[in-house]
Amino acid sequence: MNEQTQLATRRKPGRALLWLGILVALSGFVLYFVLVFGLKVLVAPWYSPILATVGVVLVLFSLVRARTFWRWGALVIFTLFAASQWFGMLFALATPAYTGPVKSGQPFPEFATTLADGTTFTQSDLQGDQHTVMVFYRGYW
Protein backbone atom coordinates (compact mmCIF):
# COMPACT_ATOMS: atom_id res chain seq x y z
CA MET A 1 0.00 0.00 0.00
CA ASN A 2 1.21 3.43 -0.77
CA GLU A 3 1.06 6.38 1.62
CA GLN A 4 -1.97 7.99 -0.04
CA THR A 5 -4.06 4.83 0.30
CA GLN A 6 -3.13 4.46 3.97
CA LEU A 7 -4.10 8.08 4.67
CA ALA A 8 -7.43 7.63 2.89
CA THR A 9 -8.24 4.51 4.91
CA ARG A 10 -7.46 6.22 8.23
CA ARG A 11 -9.74 9.20 7.61
CA LYS A 12 -13.38 8.88 8.47
CA PRO A 13 -15.74 9.49 5.57
CA GLY A 14 -17.97 12.53 5.90
CA ARG A 15 -15.51 14.66 7.85
CA ALA A 16 -15.94 17.52 5.37
CA LEU A 17 -19.71 17.35 5.84
CA LEU A 18 -19.25 17.58 9.60
CA TRP A 19 -17.09 20.70 9.43
CA LEU A 20 -19.28 22.27 6.76
CA GLY A 21 -22.34 21.66 8.94
CA ILE A 22 -20.67 23.26 11.95
CA LEU A 23 -19.59 26.29 9.92
CA VAL A 24 -23.03 26.74 8.32
CA ALA A 25 -24.80 26.38 11.67
CA LEU A 26 -22.60 29.03 13.30
CA SER A 27 -22.54 31.37 10.28
CA GLY A 28 -26.03 32.77 10.95
CA PHE A 29 -25.07 33.61 14.52
CA VAL A 30 -21.84 35.29 13.38
CA LEU A 31 -23.61 37.15 10.56
CA TYR A 32 -26.16 38.53 13.03
CA PHE A 33 -23.43 39.91 15.30
CA VAL A 34 -21.58 41.43 12.34
CA LEU A 35 -24.76 43.16 11.15
CA VAL A 36 -25.84 44.42 14.56
CA PHE A 37 -22.55 45.38 16.20
CA GLY A 38 -20.36 46.01 13.18
CA LEU A 39 -22.67 47.56 10.60
CA LYS A 40 -25.39 48.79 13.02
CA VAL A 41 -28.17 47.18 10.94
CA LEU A 42 -31.15 46.09 13.02
CA VAL A 43 -33.13 43.43 11.19
CA ALA A 44 -34.88 40.29 12.37
CA PRO A 45 -32.36 37.44 11.99
CA TRP A 46 -34.65 35.20 9.90
CA TYR A 47 -31.61 33.59 8.27
CA SER A 48 -30.08 32.34 11.53
CA PRO A 49 -32.49 29.46 12.33
CA ILE A 50 -32.52 28.43 8.66
CA LEU A 51 -28.73 28.22 8.51
CA ALA A 52 -28.64 26.38 11.85
CA THR A 53 -31.11 23.81 10.50
CA VAL A 54 -29.09 23.35 7.31
CA GLY A 55 -26.01 22.84 9.49
CA VAL A 56 -27.82 20.16 11.54
CA VAL A 57 -28.79 18.35 8.33
CA LEU A 58 -25.16 18.39 7.15
CA VAL A 59 -23.96 17.05 10.51
CA LEU A 60 -26.63 14.34 10.25
CA PHE A 61 -25.36 13.37 6.79
CA SER A 62 -21.83 13.13 8.17
CA LEU A 63 -23.15 10.90 10.96
CA VAL A 64 -24.70 8.58 8.39
CA ARG A 65 -21.31 8.24 6.69
CA ALA A 66 -19.47 7.38 9.92
CA ARG A 67 -20.94 7.05 13.40
CA THR A 68 -18.54 8.43 15.98
CA PHE A 69 -18.96 9.81 19.48
CA TRP A 70 -17.94 13.31 18.33
CA ARG A 71 -20.49 13.39 15.53
CA TRP A 72 -23.27 12.29 17.86
CA GLY A 73 -22.22 15.04 20.25
CA ALA A 74 -22.13 17.62 17.45
CA LEU A 75 -25.57 16.51 16.31
CA VAL A 76 -27.04 16.92 19.80
CA ILE A 77 -25.36 20.29 20.42
CA PHE A 78 -26.29 21.81 17.07
CA THR A 79 -29.82 20.42 17.19
CA LEU A 80 -30.29 22.21 20.52
CA PHE A 81 -28.70 25.31 19.00
CA ALA A 82 -31.07 25.24 16.01
CA ALA A 83 -34.07 24.61 18.28
CA SER A 84 -33.15 27.63 20.40
CA GLN A 85 -32.82 29.72 17.24
CA TRP A 86 -36.29 28.66 16.07
CA PHE A 87 -37.77 29.22 19.53
CA GLY A 88 -36.31 32.71 19.65
CA MET A 89 -37.57 33.54 16.17
CA LEU A 90 -41.07 32.13 16.51
CA PHE A 91 -42.00 32.69 20.16
CA ALA A 92 -39.67 35.03 22.02
CA LEU A 93 -39.69 37.74 19.33
CA ALA A 94 -43.44 37.61 18.82
CA THR A 95 -45.29 40.87 19.23
CA PRO A 96 -48.78 41.19 20.66
CA ALA A 97 -51.73 41.36 18.28
CA TYR A 98 -52.48 44.81 16.91
CA THR A 99 -55.74 46.12 18.33
CA GLY A 100 -55.85 49.38 16.39
CA PRO A 101 -54.96 52.94 17.31
CA VAL A 102 -56.11 54.57 20.54
CA LYS A 103 -59.07 56.85 19.89
CA SER A 104 -59.33 60.31 21.40
CA GLY A 105 -61.28 60.30 24.64
CA GLN A 106 -60.92 56.53 25.12
CA PRO A 107 -58.79 55.08 27.92
CA PHE A 108 -55.36 53.88 27.02
CA PRO A 109 -55.19 50.07 26.68
CA GLU A 110 -53.74 48.08 29.57
CA PHE A 111 -49.99 47.59 29.30
CA ALA A 112 -46.91 46.81 31.33
CA THR A 113 -43.31 47.36 30.33
CA THR A 114 -39.83 47.54 31.83
CA LEU A 115 -37.92 50.80 31.84
CA ALA A 116 -34.22 51.09 31.11
CA ASP A 117 -33.38 51.15 34.83
CA GLY A 118 -35.26 47.85 35.38
CA THR A 119 -38.38 49.24 37.08
CA THR A 120 -41.83 48.34 35.77
CA PHE A 121 -44.12 50.90 34.21
CA THR A 122 -47.87 50.26 33.86
CA GLN A 123 -51.01 52.12 32.90
CA SER A 124 -51.67 52.99 36.55
CA ASP A 125 -48.49 55.14 36.52
CA LEU A 126 -50.22 57.44 34.01
CA GLN A 127 -53.28 58.10 36.17
CA GLY A 128 -53.56 61.26 38.23
CA ASP A 129 -54.43 64.93 37.97
CA GLN A 130 -51.65 65.80 35.54
CA HIS A 131 -51.90 65.64 31.75
CA THR A 132 -49.66 63.02 30.23
CA VAL A 133 -48.21 62.73 26.75
CA MET A 134 -46.55 59.48 25.67
CA VAL A 135 -43.92 59.77 22.96
CA PHE A 136 -42.59 56.61 21.32
CA TYR A 137 -39.12 57.26 20.00
CA ARG A 138 -37.71 54.33 18.10
CA GLY A 139 -34.21 55.69 18.22
CA TYR A 140 -31.55 56.19 15.60
CA TRP A 141 -28.97 53.48 15.08
Structural commentary:
By secondary structure, the chain is mostly helical. It has a domain at 3-92. It has helices at 3-10, 15-38, 47-65, 69-92; strands spanning 112-114, 120-122. A two-stranded antiparallel ribbon has the order 1-2. Helix 2 packs antiparallel against helix 3 and helix 3 packs antiparallel against helix 4 (69-92).
Shape estimate = elongated
One letter per element, helices H and strands E, the order comes to HHHHEE
| Gyration radius, in Å | 25 Å
If strands are numbered along the chain, what order do they take across the biggest sheet?
1-2
Largest sheet: 2 strands, antiparallel
Number of alpha- plus pi-helical segments: 4
**Helical content band:** 40-55%
Strand segment tally: 2
Layout of strands and helices, then pairs:
Elements (H helix, E strand, L loop, with lengths): L2 H8 L4 H24 L8 H19 L3 H24 L19 E3 L5 E3 L19
Antiparallel strand pairs: 1-2
Helix pairs in contact: 2-3, 3-4
Summed up, what is this model?
The protein is mostly helical and 141 residues long.
